[in-house]
Amino acid sequence: MTLILGIESSCDETAAAVVEDGRHIRSSVISSQVDLHAQYGGIFPEIASRAHVERIYPVVEEALSKAGVTLGDLDALAVTRGPGLAGSLVVGVNMAKGLALARGLPVVAVNHLEGHVYSLWLAGPEYRFVPGEPPAQPTDPWVPIEFPVVVLIVSGGHSELLLMTGHGEYTPLGSTLDDAAGEAFDKVGRLLALPYPGGPSIQRAAENGDPAAFDLPRVWLRGNQGERNYDFSFSGIKTAVLRTLESLDPSYEPDTPISPEIPVADLAASFQAAVVEVLVGKTVRAAEEYDATEIFIAGGVSANKALRETMIAQAGRPVRVPPLSLCTDNAAMIAAAGAFRFRAGEQATLDFDVRPTWPLTEIG
Ligand code: KG4
Ligand code: ZN
User: Fold this and answer.
1) Is the whole model's pTM more than 0.90, yes or no?
2) Spacing, Cα 64 to ligand 2 middle (Å)
3) Distance in angstroms (rounded) separating the CA atoms of residues 229 and 149
4) d(CA 58, CA 44)
């Protein structure tokens, strides 16, 4: 048995988790700073790093005690090295280095995006959806993952479409040219005066809305020769929502109370439908082109119900989604990714720096 303590502090969640054999969560503790940043409508970096400094130690202690283990029981530590906010990343990295020094434990430096990918290894059998079959039960056997897999990572900071051909082997197929998918949800949420973060608020508002009420743009993008590609662009749809608001109410101003005349639910539903259509359309086409065994979705936006349901309906092959608790940032996924690297013999020397920008294609 391999026991790994994962530590995550790349953005606004301070998290620690103990994971067994890269697949079983013994504990997962997350201290979210959402309340601290809500007043700014986004993340305030200095507040984030200082909150991590206060919270990291109690969060690690709680993860160990909930798992019923001590530092002496661990085989290794896994910590997020990047991408993320530098001042936030250093807090987790220094915690891991301190524990490594004190206890002689090996450290694996993990890419946060790879962590999101490995959240699918922590998802039980009931999170694998097969077209035409009834939903699997938690007690069913876990179907091992076979490559190649097409992975869509959609979070507040990233929208990446990847072909995963083996453990740690990624070919980038496309990414966003402007806003990340989650960022678009957050910005449109703000335009609609919905509570931060916008993603869950838009999903909630959209439940009572008509997704066909407004014809918002689907940006498919083409290359110079008119060829189709796998990149995304979400800033145009955000602008289209703003223009629609201005035409519905000429006195509309962002960040002021919204007129009761504005059909917020219809706008939220129409926006969500447009984003989901493009995300699903490109992912399914990539899975066909590369003959993927399965489709994975991961990252904060993969919590979106419409995205999950549409992907499962249109994929034409099995789809794995993370449990809701593993969609947004957590340390269990970092421990899971670290477990595969640790088993492959990887270990960082203690002079490693954080990497605020770190594409998945550059992990070695
Ligand atoms: O993965 P994550 O916790 O942090 C980053 O690494 O960025 O993702 C956070 C993002 C936010 O933009 C949030 O609005 C979005 O995920 N999100 C959602 C939903 N839940 C969270 N977006 C759409 N629908 C949701 N249900
Ligand atoms: Zn994330």
Assistant:
1) yes
2) 22
3) 18
4) 22
